Amino acid sequence: MVFRLKLILFLVLHFLPKVKSSMVSLNNNGYEDIVIAINPSVPENETLIQSIKEMVTEASTYLFHATERRVYFRNVSILIPVTWESKSEYLMPKQESYDQADVIVADPYLKYGDDPYTLQYGQCGEKGQYIHFTPNFLLTDNMSIYGPRGKVFVHEWAHLRWGVFDEYNVDRPFYISRKNTIEATRCSTHITGMNVVFNECKGGSCITRQCRRDSKTGLYEAKCTFIPNKSQTARDSIMFMQNLNSVTEFCTAKTHNTEAPNLQNKMCNHKSTWDVIKESDDFQNASPMTGTNLPPHPIFSLLKSKHRVVCLVLDKSGSMNTVRQFLLTFKYLIEI
Length: 336
Ligand SMILES: *[C@@H]1O[C@H](CO)[C@@H](O)[C@H](O)[C@H]1NC(C)=O
Ligand SMILES: *[C@@H]1O[C@H](CO)[C@@H](O)[C@H](O)[C@H]1NC(C)=O
Ligand SMILES: *[C@@H]1O[C@H](CO)[C@@H](O)[C@H](O)[C@H]1NC(C)=O
Ligand SMILES: *[C@@H]1O[C@H](CO)[C@@H](O)[C@H](O)[C@H]1NC(C)=O
Known about the structure:
Elements: H1 2-15, E1 25-27, E2 30-32, E3 34-38, H2 46-66, E4 72-73, E5 75-79, E6 103-105, E7 117-119, E8 130-133, H3 135-139, H4 143-146, H5 149-162, E9 174-176, E10 182-184, E11 193-202, E12 205-210, E13 225-228, H6 263-267, H7 273-278, H8 281-284, E14 299-303, H9 320-335
Parallel strand pairs: 2-4, 3-5, 3-6, 5-14, 6-8
Antiparallel strand pairs: 1-2, 7-8, 9-10, 11-12, 11-13
Bound molecules: 2-acetamido-2-deoxy-beta-D-glucopyranose (4 copies).
C-alpha cells in the first residue's frame, strides 16, 4: 500500500507542471528560451503573434544599447492556446507551459487595466514571477502613454530579471528636496517639465494652471501633476518614463536621484537601478560584445499543444498487476 502511494505520488509530481520556474538562460550575451504564453480565454487574433514578435525584436535592440552591448534576446517561444486554430508550422511544446511562462498575454487584471506590469514580490535584485500584457495593449497603439512597446518590454524585463523597481510613485508624485524645493518624484532630476493642474479639457487640449503650494503639507495641492517636456536631453531613466524619446538608459550611480520617495530607493537602499543590474548573476557572466555590429534579431518558435486529457486511475485491489496496469494506462494517456 505504501509502495503504491509512493508510486502514485511520484507519478503525479513528475508529470504535473512544475511550480513556477523559468527556463530562461543567458549564453554568450543572448537570452534563450524565453516563454511568452497566450491565455486560452483570449479570442483568436493572429495580429497578436505579429505584435509580440515586433515588440521583442524592438526590445532586443533597446536592451542591447541600455546594457552597453551586454545582453539581447536570442530566442523566444510563443505558446499559442489550444483554443486557437492549428497550423502545420506550429511545433509541439516540450516543457513549456502557461503556468511557468515568463510573459503572459491575458485579459486585464482589474487593478492594472491595460497597463503592463510585472509580478515581483521579492527583495531588491530578486527575480519576479511573470510579466503581464493585455491583448488590448498589444493590439492598439497608445504611444504617448507607453512609448514604443519594445521599450515597455525592457522596463518590465528589468523588473522580472534583475529585481529593480519603479522610479515614479503615483502615491507620492512630489517631495521636498534637501535644498527645500518641491521636486517631482523622478530619475534622473535632469528630466524637465512643468507642474500643473488641468482645469478643463476639450477636444484634446486642456486649460492648465500652475500648481499652488499647500500650506499644510508644504507640497503642491493634491491635483497637481508633473508633465515632462516632450523635448528632453536626459537619457535616463527607463524605470521612470520609458515613453520619453530621449530616454534610453537606466539611472546610474552618477545620475541616480537618491532623494525621490519611490520603490527603487525604498527597496534597494537608495542604490541606482544600473548598480543593481550590474550586480546581477547575468552581468557577472556577460562582458560587453566587441565591435560595432548589432546582434542578430531574435528567433521565434510557435508552439501549440494538442488537446489532451490526463486522468488518474486509482484502483483499490491489492495486486501488483493493477499497479502495472495503472502505470501503462497513465503512460498511454500522457503520450496521446
Ligand atoms: C535557443 O537557442 C539555443 C542555442 O542555440 C538552443 O539550444 C535552443 O534550443 C533554442 N531554443 C529555441 C526555443 O529556439
Ligand atoms: C485583430 O485585432 C486587430 C486590432 O485590434 C483588429 O483590427 C482585427 O479586426 C482583429 N482580428 C480579428 C480576427 O479579430
Ligand atoms: C490609452 O490609454 C488610456 C489611458 O490609460 C485609455 O483610457 C485608452 O483607452 C487607451 N487607448 C487605447 C486605444 O488603448
Ligand atoms: C521645459 O520645462 C521647463 C521647466 O522645467 C520650462 O521652464 C520650459 O518652458 C519647458 N520647455 C518647453 C519647451 O516646454
